[in-house]
Amino acid sequence: MTRIVAGTAGGRTLVVPSSGTRPTSERVREALFSRLEHLDAVDGARVLDLYAGSGALGLEAASRGADHVVLVDQARAAVEACRRNARALGLQARTEVVADRVDRYLVRRPDGADAFDLVLLDPPYDLPDDALADDLEQVARHVAPGAVVVVERSARSADPRWPATLVPFGDRRYGETQVWFAEPVPDA
User: Fold this and answer.
1) Cβ–Cβ < 8 Å for 57, 46
2) How far apart are CA 87 and CA 162, in angstroms?
3) Most buried of 6, 28, 59, 123 (most Cβ within 10 A)?
4) For residues 164-183, b (16+ Cβ closer than 10 Å) or e, as one string?
5) Inter-residue long-range contacts of 134-139, CB under 8 Å, 24+ positions, other chains counted
């Protein structure tokens, strides 16, 4: 069972697609959001959740006070789960669900659109490193100054290849899950 850990929807369960997703464990989400809240990266934030699956990460952010959350996934079952979960949690007014491939969404999104304060990437573990690097290159175009970018992958995965405009500032391992953090390079 997948639940929201804390906030206005804390303890509420989420619908998870029956296949094709790997929801972030409650333990990892709790630790991740503890760190993000310590960094003051959630409350009032514009959040982008890529490879959203059930929407657990983005909806956790909304439950904890994010102003606006965009959930992006290409799988029909995942998109439907995201919509159902946002509605059931009463978070649909602050949640936008986009049915599209992550790479296509990032390329099509205009550079002048509102920048994101927090970007969460939880791609399938079998996503090639080059594809993740391409995603991160595009993500860098859409982040606000001081934003936090989080990548979650298998602990056996190589470190993400960050674009020159994002600088890593830490990582954490939780069993088989590894989480990396980066931020935009400050303007000189």
Assistant:
1) no
2) 35
3) 59
4) eebeeeeeeebeebbbbbbb
5) 134/103, 135/50, 135/102, 135/103, 135/106, 136/160, 136/161, 136/162, 136/163, 136/166, 136/182, 137/163, 138/103, 138/106, 138/107, 139/48, 139/50, 139/106, 139/166
Q: Where are the domains of the chain?
A: 2-17+24-184
Q: DSSP for 29-86?
A: HHHHHHHHHHTT-STT-EEEEES-TTSHHHHHHHHTT-SEEEEEE--HHHHHHHHHHH
Fold that domain 2-17+24-184 belongs to in CATH: Rossmann fold (3.40.50)
CA nearest to 131, candidates 151, 103, 153: 103
Tens-digit pLDDT profile for the chain (188 aa)? 788 899 989 889 899 987 666 677 888 999 999 999 999 999 999 999 999 999 999 999 999 999 999 999 999 999 999 999 999 999 999 999 999 999 999 999 987 789 999 999 999 988 999 999 999 999 999 999 999 999 999 999 999 999 999 999 999 999 999 999 999 998 74
Radius of gyration of the chain, Cα coordinates, nearest whole angstrom: 15
Q: What secondary structure letter does DSSP report for 131? A: H
